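User: I'm preparing a small set of examples for a lab meeting where we compare how different chains pack in three dimensions. I only have the primary sequence for this one, and I'd like the structure in token form so I can line it up with the others. Please keep the answer compact; I'll paste it straight into my notes.
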Amino acid sequence: MPILILLAILLAAGDAAAQTRVKFALDWQIQGPQAPFITAKAIGAFSARGLDVTIDRGTGSQKTIEQVATGTYDMGYGDINSMIEYNVKNPQNPLIAVGIVLNSPPFALLSLKRNGIREPKDLQGASIGAPAGDAPRRLWPIFAKNAGVPVDSVTWTNMAPPLREPALVKGDVKAISGFYFTGFLNLTENLKVPESDVVAFNYSDYGIDLYGNAVIVRVDWLKANEDTARRFLAALAAGFKAVIKDPKAAIVHVKTAEPLSNEATELKRLQLAISANMINDEVKKNGLLAIDAARMQRAIDQVVVSFELGSKPSVAQVFTGAYLPPASERKLD
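Assistant: Understood. Below is the structure token output for the 333-residue chain.
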């Protein structure tokens, strides 16, 4: 018996050693929209493909991008538009996106009807709260132009991300910018603002047709770890499809990974992300994680103008679909 036990231990150790370790950083804390990654790990999709993936929460896309760029993490999940900016400013250490999760970014401005704001033009003269590097804040000039609002008609108040919604409710600012599914639920679920009082201007409704969060890696890491990238994305596709098929089950995995999360709130957050950011006609046509090259080129053009970048990268420098699983594995059932 002792010999059998020893053999079992040695076999288990061998299996563990055979697993390729991957350090992965999320964009934010573990919530409903991060479910594709959490589910892929929970259902064994990574381990079944020989990967031992460690998933750490993030503190914002900008930080995650920096951590991937410096090698603190092998792969990460962050805003592709911020990645484009990073690459232009750091051409010696480029990153590339290998899979899109948020086909449409949740960029939005949120306000309250009690502030007299019902249309974008009502924002004139308003103070808007946001962190200095907030993507929707930086995209304000394009939104304002498309919505018919003078660009210089608002003032911006710098504040940390967690302070935005409380500041709006207290009246310190008249509007805030950020992710729709984050701001809306923070207001209605956490701060008990009636849904009917929340006003949201989603950037995607005003001609800002960008892509959102993606799996990002360093170009040099990708060249040295092509098979690992392929296995990771195949597992992610499996987890992603499982989330779309059964969001409630996915939230159980989220709760296990983040015990302090509220399942009801995170289910709502996930459902908002699925309907508004993850699944659309393009995804139904091309499958999960992919892009439309012409649309990506238009998105790059908008980012270069909005962020006042000194050069314009090509689509191939921003995204590669070469490591995605076959379309048959990414198409929705």
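A couple of notes for your slides: Strands lie at 20-25, 51-56, 75-79, 95-100, 107-112, 127-130, 155-158, 175-179, 198-202, 213-218. The chain has two domains: 10-104+211-330, 107-206.

User: Perfect, thanks.
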